[in-house]
């Protein structure tokens, strides 16, 4: 199937391609940052043994003092960006990628709402709910629609996609706030 038959505008495809690049850079540089202190905590003091997940097999000695640099892992440049215990460069790559990923998202939403493409994501009529109930009953009784255009989604899928998009956006924002700050979950709940 040629790309022109999908009828998505070029800017939409390009924004998703750029998004893929920046998400890859964010993940790889995030792995480099995580390799510096390969443990995640839900509390402020980060006492040894109180982590909720650990990404290292190193055992720290109990009979002498040690620092977080002793826990640092060295990851290959194929996995982490830039790899090999470069926390400073990993942070630079992470924040560089985050700025351009955010700018790409802003441009995407501006173009999405100014071009009218938003109607693909948001239902524009209340008629979708009775039709979705009908489609759900057809699927529940294993009466599938005849094969046709693979890009023609049913109303049930439209509602599900809209709800999934809203939930994922909310959940990603909420979880990124919790994991990116050094404060505990109890302090976050006090702030809200």
Model description:
- The protein has 192 residues and is mostly helical.
- It has 2 domains: 1-37 and 72-120; 123-192, no CATH class.
- Helices cover 53% and strands 2% of the residues.
- It is built from 5 helices and 2 strands, in the order αββαααα.
- The chain has helices at residues 10-36, 87-115, 128-140, 155-180, 185-191, and strands at 39-40, 53-54.
- It has a two-stranded antiparallel ribbon.
- α1 runs antiparallel to α2 (87-115) and α3 packs across α4 (155-180).
- The radius of gyration is 23 Å and the shape is elongated.
- The model is unreliable at 177-192 (pLDDT under 50).
Task: Give the secondary structure arrangement, pairings included.
Blueprint: H1 10-36, E1 39-40, E2 53-54, H2 87-115, H3 128-140, H4 155-180, H5 185-191
Antiparallel strand pairs: 1-2
Distance between the termini: 49 Å
Which structural class do you get from the secondary structure elements? mainly alpha
Count of folded domains: 2
What low-confidence regions span 5 or more consecutive residues with pLDDT below 50? 177-192
Which outline best applies?
A: elongated
- Tally of alpha and pi helices: 5
Major sheet strand order: 1-2
What's the pLDDT, averaged over the residues?
77
N-to-C SSE series?
HEEHHHH
Strand content: under 5%
What would the keywords be for this entry?
mainly alpha, two-stranded antiparallel sheet, 2 strands, 2% strand
Brief characterization of the structure:
The protein has 192 residues and is mainly α. Helix 1 packs antiparallel against helix 2 (87-115) and helix 3 (128-140) packs across helix 4. The chain has five helices and two strands, in the order αββαααα.
